[in-house]
Structures are given as C-alpha cells and as structure tokens.
Design a protein that fits this description.
- The structure holds three protein chains of three kinds.
- Chain A is mostly helical.
- Chain A has helices spanning about 5-20, 20-60, 75-85, 95-110, 130-140, 140-150, 155-185, 190-195, 205, 210-225, 235-240, 250-275, 290-295, 300-320, 325-355, and strands at about 115-120, 120-125.
- In chain A, strands 1-2 form a two-stranded antiparallel sheet.
- In chain A, helix 6 packs antiparallel against helix 7 (about 155-185), helix 10 packs antiparallel against helix 12 (about 250-275) and helix 12 (about 250-275) crosses helix 14 (about 300-320).
- Chain B is of the alpha+beta class.
- The N and C termini of chain B lie far apart (about 90 Å).
- Chain C is mostly helical.
- Chain C has two domains: about 5-50, no CATH class; about 60-375, Cytochrome-c3 Hydrogenase, chain B (Orthogonal Bundle), CATH 1.10.645.10.
- Chain C has helices at about 5-10, 60-65, 70-75, 85-100, 105-135, 140-160, 180-205, 205-210, 220-225, 230-235, 240-245, 265-290, 340-350, 350-355, 360-370, 375; strands at about 20-25, 35-40, 45-50, 165-170, 170, 310-315, 320-330, 335-340.
- The longest helix of chain C has 29 residues, at about 105-135.
- Chains in contact: A-B, A-C, B-C.
C-alpha cells in the first residue's frame, strides 16, 4: 500500500547510512525546504483555480476554460504573466519596508507549515507545543500586512492595513478559544497526540455540541483571520480598491495573493486536524468491517480531503455573503463570538472533567 | 429576557445565512443552470435577432442592382453625418440626364445605429444588418461605400 | 532609505488635524463610472463628501440644439442608458404634446410595456451592482440572468439591447415583433419564479440588512429640499410617481400601487425598488394581452416644427423624474433645451446622507441612490 511514511523512513535510513549524521540532517533540511516551496507553488496554482471554478459554478458561469482542458493551466499562465510584469515601487513609498512586506507575509505562511501532519507520521516538526506555536506564528502575518499598508504611502492601503490589524487581533481570540476546546478535550498541545486521540472518532462527533460550536466558531474566526469575504475588509474591493496591496504589482502582488491562499490552506488543515481527525480515517465505534475498509484509504488522502472540504466551505461563504462593515465586524467578535466561545470553553471544561465525552 | 433576545438574534442571523448558502449551493450542484455563451466557439449556431441594428447595408440583387436613387434623404435624416451621398448624372437611353448615386459613403465609426436613415429612405434601398463583428486594426476600413462597384439602379424605381 | 521629513510633509498637506482626504474616483470600483468624490475622512468616519463632476460631459443639451425634433431623441438614450427607452419616450411625448400629434392606442400600449420592462431591467442591474458594492458578488449574475431575457426581448423588437431608439414622435419606429407577447409572458413566469432568490440571497440576509438598515437616512423634508425624485424620494415617504400624478400614455388605464416606504434609509430604498419591479410586472400583465390592433405610428408631417413657445414634459424613469424643457422659436430645431435628470438631484443629497457614517456605509448609500454617471453629467 502506498504510504508517505514508508518513503520518508526509507530516505532517512539511506541518508544516515550513506553520510554522517550532521550532513544527513542538512540534506534532509534542504529536501524539506524544497518540498515546502514546491507544495506552496502547487497549492497556489490549485487553490486559485479551485476558487475560480467554485465561483463560476455558483455564479452560473463556466469559469476559466481556455488554457488547457477545462482551463486547468489558467493559473499557471497567470503566474507566468505576473512574473513577467514589472514590480513597481511607488516613488514616495518606504522602499525597504514596501519590498519586505510580501516576504514577511509569505514567511509566516511557510513557518505555519511546520507542525502540520500531512499523513501518518509525515510531519516536518512534531513540536510538543504545536497548537501554541500555530497560534503564535499566525498572529505575525498582521505585521506584514500593516507594513505593506504603511509603506505603500497610499491612503487606501493604510485604511486597509488598519482594518486588517483590528480584525486579526480580535478574531485571534475566538480562534484561540476554539482551538483551546480541543486542547482541553485532548489534554495535549502536540498535533500528533491530538490526531491520535481521535482514533476512535473525530472530536466533532465525540465532543458533543460544544465541539460543534467550537468548530463553527473556528471556521468563522479563521475566515476573518485570513481576510476572506464576508470579512475581507482589508481588501474590500468596492470600498478601498484593493486595500493593503493596492500599490503592489507583479510578483510582489502575487506573493500576497499566494500567501492568502496558503493561509487558507493552513487554517483549514489545522481545522481538519483538530476537529475532523487530521489524517485519521473515519471510524465508527465497533463496526470492524467498515473501519477496516476506511483504513485502506491512504492517510494523506484523508487529510487532503478534509482540508479541501473546509476550503470549499470557506469559498462557499465568500461567494454567498455580502461584506460586513468594520464596526459590525468588531461587534460580531466582541459581542457574539467571544462570549459564546468563553461559555463554550467552560462547557467543554466541565465535560472534560466529568469525562462525558466518548 | 435579554438572553432570549440574544439567542433569537443569533438563531435568525445564522438561519438567514444558511438560506443564502442553500441557494448558492443549489447552483453549485446544478451545472445545467450555467448560462455562459461561449461566443467565438458558437459562431456557427449563433442566431442574431433579425432586427438587430449592427450596420447599414445596401442590399443588391443577383443582377448587381440596388434601389438607391441618390435622393439624399438618408443623409439629411442622419444626426451625426454618418452618411454622405455622392451623386452623378446618368444618361438614360432616351438621352435624358438622370440623377443617380455614384457612391453612398457610410462611416461606421460615426454611426449610432439610430435607424433614422432606414425609415427615411423612400425606396427601401438601405437596411440594418445584424452584423456586429466590426473590429478592425485600421480605422479607415470602417468607412465603407455601400453600393457595389458597377451596380446600377433597379428598373422601375423612381 | 527612509526619509522621515518627507513623509511628515506629505501628511501635513492633507488638511485639518486628523483629517484624511481620499479621492474616490474618477476610477474606483464603487462609483460605477467616472464619478469623482472627494471624501474627507476622520479615521473610518466620513466628514464630508464633495462630488466632482464633468468627466463625461458631452454637452448633450447644446448638441440637441442643432438636431431636429426627430434626431434629438436618440441622444437621450446616451444619458441615462439604463432607462434609455423611457428617456426617448419623454422626448417623443414632448414633441407630440407640442404639435398635437395623435398617437395610436397600439403604440401607447407597447410604449408602456417597454417602459416597464426597461424599469425592471434597470432595477435588476442596480440590484446586482448594489449587492456587489456591499461585497456579495453572486446576486449580480442571478440578476443579470433575468435582465438578459429583457435585453433579448428588446433586441428582437427594437433592434438594440441598450440604446433602443425605438420611439419616434407619433408612435413607434416599427411594429412589435410577432414573438413579443410570448416572450414577455415567458419572462414574467421566469421572473416570478426567480425573484425569491433575491430574497434568500440579499433581502433577508442578516449581513445585508445590518449594512443597510438605518444607513444613509434621508427625511421627507430633506428629500423634497434636495429635489430628490423616484425611488430615493419614495423611500422617504414622498409621493412623487409621475406615472400616478401626471399619467402619460396608458398609465391612467392600468392599476398599480405607488410604492412608498417611510424609513428613508438604504434598506427602504432597496425595498422600494424591489417592490417596484413587482408593480411593473403587474402593469405588464394587465397590458400584454390587450394590445389593440391598428397602426403603430400616427400621421405626422415629414418635417416637424414645434410652435413658438416653451414646453415641458416629464416621465418617470427608473431613477426618478426626467424632465425635458424646450424653448422653441418655431424652427425645425430647439432653440434651447434643458434636461432635468434625476441622478443629478439625487447625488446632491449624498453629502447630507453619508456625512458622519463609515466608509462602508457610503457604499450602501451610494449604491441605493442608483447613480448613472452619464445621466448626471450629460
């Protein structure tokens, strides 16, 4: 049976057999970096195409259909175009920060990739505070956005960046509380242990209503955190033209664009890991036969399937809802989501202490 | 009481959002509802409305004859000087001089497709054609002479 | 690398302390054309809006002075291009009134049906565009699907989809297409089936309601003093429907309600337009089966000459009262012509409505004003 775990261990064994441990580790690092970059490129292409196709289907259109069969090379062609475009820097912009910002946003997205378990035993860094690490790093992307907005020396960019700052800082709270509910249930911050705890059922099923509430809160909060509609105030096309990346063009713009989609992938991957069991197949109680069949599907496919389901959900939101106003956005967080998530956390704590979950 | 309102607020809000999502979800799962017309590909089957005002043409019959008498009614009716009628004098077999059209110059780039020239024409010599693919690389190509070379007026049209 | 003094100098040019001046437009996704708004902001809050016009001024009024009474009609299609048919109708009514031309009943019926179809098409486009202003992209396509049916009907009967120019003084340019009634009925069926979609996606949506309710309030007194007409004034409770107050063609024969809301906010303006679409359907349903047989154009002289004097007619376009004022010296062309376009007066209320609200509210307010820039600039 195909398994990523086998491939990685074979490569590792071979490297350690061939070279001394330090060199082997260095080579492993290079391989991981290359793989991460390749994954980014591939994800960018796939997600942008997916978004356009989903949007088209919802909007009773066909979507991209010219470049390649069914338009599958459309995003590749777009990337080619963006690479060839001139990357303009406005005259009065703060040139250093202006050019640095897209890379910071991109680097944050890359760092977040580390603790994600893509398949069984296929994880870059199984850090024992994985969830905390994710919460900490994901807050950093706001720095890149603020930097871009300020350095552009454009009023639209500045407004977009300020909105984004307020938004990400507030929604971090709900996202954090939603994640905490699962941590409370599992009793561990380590991603691999959270996944292992879901062997006999995903948390969204095992955790009763509080887990479902936490899941909904998590989805709403991360939609806001990734600046997606209906919370896309930082970009708000009809209000601020393009928000914080108004002045960016060419590949620098593409980096922002790519980072947005990578961020979506990462938050959805984390959501899938925490609530939907990560790479764990769907197991139902004592149905041995059913569970056995489910085990035959490779764990990487389980993980990707769940992640892309969540990504689809977020895209579905985007193409259905109008945008909120900035004060309503903050109202929603502080008056609705935060009280609910605090109450929910309390509920989960009670459930976990009394051992009511399965 | 406050709590009850709060909960009903949340419930109504979420249910209204779900209703919208059901609608968009319906269209996502029903690709038959797609209405895109793939224009350059469907050229063969594309049917334009017969009355569509695309450009002014002068129909010629198989003998290369048209119905234009060169009366300049269309030129007078046109609001933006799109049509210019250049007339000449034909010699009829009886030896009389008769006014006829030499060139009916039509400048498509100025035309607003208002149809006033067509209804002004007393002999129905010009009409609107449903052609709409007018783009050219050179603007001068849009200036057309509507009567074909060597054409003459049909018998019996005054 | 980082020149601090330069940055400080830049911001000090912005105006008073803490103010930020943004030029929205002439190229901005929300202004739907070349409208230029100079918006003074304090953070996210709008302090003042100053519309700058003239980017698409074509001096249509002056142009009309050199065109005959048959020719000047087509120009009005280029003003409020979304209700071009109604504009044309207004001009034709003026010439008919001035010269006492009898219009056949058939032409009157068809004119009213087409006017109402134009109104629905305009409101459909507005609905989609406004939802898009508020960030919902999908209703735009659903609204355009229904609008497409109307433009197809227009294309078949009038020969054009947007700038119809189907009306001549005295009646219609040519008779309706044989399929006209069938297609209009098909459209009515489709529209009634699909109008619930807008309710699900837009009207009942909690985000949409919270974005529009209580936003951009215009009181009845202000609506009158700013000269607002059409759905904008009716949403504030001002009865101003020309079709009811000064009926033209066959509007006095049909039954319909003048839609009036009293809240005066963006949501009320939205509801007025949505309900107006249903009223238009009601009007069309009453007329479509009873189009009388007969001529489609009355007897007119070849050269039209308005008698010496001043003439004014008004029609209710999708945006409000469209008035045409002509001073005639008795010649074949108008001596002076003045168009009273609804968009211009409605725009003048924008500063009053949006000052003090957030940038997001400006989009809702501007969206529900339903501005068509060539109508404002002419």
């Amino acid at each position: 049976m195909f398994s990523l775990e086998g491939i990685t261990s074979t490569i590792q064994d071979w490297l350690f057999f061939k070279f001394n441990p330090t060199l082997a580790l260095a080579i492993e690092c290079v391989i991981v970096i290359l793989l991460a970059i390749a994954l980014f490129a591939a994800l960018g292409l796939i997600l942008v195409l997916m978004e356009r196709k989903v949007a088209a289907r919802i909007q009773i259109r066909l979507g991209p259909n010219r470049v390649g069969p069914g338009g599958i090379f459309q995003t590749a062609a777009d990337t080619l175009k963006l690479i060839m475009k001139e990357g303009l820097t406005p005259d009065k912009a703060d040139k250093f920060l202006f050019n640095l910002a897209p890379f910071i946003v991109m680097m944050v997205a890359m760092l977040l990739l580390a603790p994600i378990a893509f398949a069984k035993n296929f994880q870059i860094w199984d850090i024992n505070i994985g969830v905390l690490y994710i919460s900490a790093i994901s807050s950093l992307s706001v720095i890149g956005i603020l930097m871009a907005g300020w350095a552009s020396n454009n009023k639209y960019s500045l407004l977009g960046a300020m909105r984004s700052g307020a938004q990400i800082v507030s929604y971090e709270l709900s996202a954090g509380f939603a994640v905490l509910t699962i941590v409370v249930l599992t009793g561990s911050l380590q991603i691999s242990e959270i996944v292992a705890a879901q062997q006999n059922g995903w948390w969204i099923f095992k955790g009763h209503i509080p887990a479902i509430i936490a899941f909904v809160l998590y989805i709403i909060a991360v939609t806001a955190e990734t600046n997606r509609a209906p919370f896309d105030l930082a970009e708000a096309e009809s209000e601020l033209t393009a928000g914080f990346h108004t002045e960016y063009s060419g590949m620098k713009f593409a980096l922002f664009f790519l980072a947005e989609y990578i961020n979506i992938f990462i938050v959805c991957a984390i959501g899938a890991t925490l609530f939907l069991g990560g790479w764990m197949p769907l197991h139902i109680g004592n149905w041995q036969g059913f569970n056995h069949i489910m085990d035959f599907i490779p764990s990487s496919i389980w993980f990707m399937g769940k992640t892309f389901f969540l990504i689809f959900l977020i895209m579905w939101f985007r193409w259905t809802f109008p945008r909120l106003r900035v004060d309503q956005l903050l109202n929603l967080e502080w008056k609705y989501l935060l009280p609910i998530s605090l109450f929910n956390l309390l509920l989960v704590a009670v459930i976990a202490i009394l051992g009511w979950h399965f | 009481m406050f709590l009850k309102e709060y909960i009903s607020d949340v419930y109504n809000g979420v249910s209204s959002l779900l209703k919208g999502m059901r609608k968009t979800g319906y269209y996502f799962t029903h690709p038959k509802e797609i209405i895109t017309e793939q224009y350059p590909d469907n050229r063969a089957t594309l049917v334009m409305a017969e009355r569509f005002k695309g450009e002014v043409v002068m129909p010629h019959d198989q003998n290369n004859e048209h119905a234009c008498t060169g009366c300049t009614a269309c030129e007078l009716a046109c609001p933006n000087g799109t049509i210019k009628v250049v007339t000449k004098f034909d010699i009829t077999p009886e030896g009389k001089k008769k006014k006829a059209v030499d060139a009916l110059v039509y400048r498509l780039e100025l035309c607003t497709m208002c149809n006033l020239c067509v209804i002004a024409c007393p002999s129905d010599a010009i009409k609107m054609a449903p052609n709409f693919e007018h783009s050219v690389f050179d603007r001068s190509k849009l200036t057309k002479i509507l009567n074909k070379t060597g054409s003459k007026i049909r018998e019996g049209i005054e | 690398m980082y020149n601090q003094t330069e940055v400080i100098k830049d911001t000090s040019e912005l105006g008073a302390e803490g103010e930020l001046i943004i030029n929205m437009g002439p190229q901005h996704p929300a202004t739907h054309g070349v409208l230029h708004l100079v918006v003074t902001l304090n953070g996210e809050t709008i302090k003042k809006i100053e519309p700058h016009l003239g980017y698409i001024h074509r001096s249509i009024e002056k142009m009309c002075e050199s065109l005959t009474y048959r020719q000047f009609i087509y120009v009005t299609s280029r003003m409020d291009y979304l209700s071009s048919h109604i504009n044309n109708l207004g001009c034709a009514l003026l010439v008919e009134k001035g010269m006492q031309i009898e219009v056949p009943e058939r032409a009157k019926y068809v004119r009213v049906i087409l006017s109402e179809l134009t109104r629905i098409a305009s409101h459909e486009l507005w609905l989609g565009a406004m939802a898009m202003d508020l960030g919902a992209f999908t209703p735009f396509f659903y609204a355009f699907r229904e609008r497409e049916m109307i433009t197809d009907i227009m294309e078949e009967t009038c020969g054009a989809r947007l700038t119809m120019n189907y009306i001549v003084p005295g009646g219609l340019m040519y008779d309706i297409h044989p399929d006209f009634q069938k297609k209009v009925k098909a459209f009515i069926t489709q529209f009634k089936a699909k109008v619930t979609e807008y309710e699900d996606l837009v009207t009942n949506n909690i985000i949409f309601q919270s974005r529009t309710k209580g936003v951009g309030v215009l009181t009845a007194e202000d609506a009158i003093s700013f000269g607002c007409t059409g759905p904008v004034a009716r949403a504030s409770g001002v009865s101003c429907d020309i079709r009811k107050l000064y009926p033209y063609d066959v509007y006095d024969k049909v039954e319909f309600d003048e839609v009036i809301e009293t809240a005066g906010d963006s949501f009320a303006r939205y509801m007025v337009r949505v309900k107006e679409m249903n009223q238009s359907i009601r009007i069309i349903e009453q007329l479509i089966d009873t189009i009388p047989e007969g001529d489609f154009v009355g007897k007119t002289k070849n050269v039209l000459k308005l008698p010496k004097g001043e003439f004014y007619t008004r029609v209710e376009t999708a945006r409000g009262e469209f008035g045409i004022y002509v001073v005639s010296e008795g010649g074949t062309t108008p001596h002076r012509i003045k168009f009273r376009s609804p968009g211009f007066s409605n725009l003048s209320a924008l500063n009053h409505m949006a000052a003090g609200s957030k940038i997001g509210d400006l989009m809702a307010t501007m969206g529900t004003l339903d501005l068509v820039i060539p109508d404002i600039d002419r």
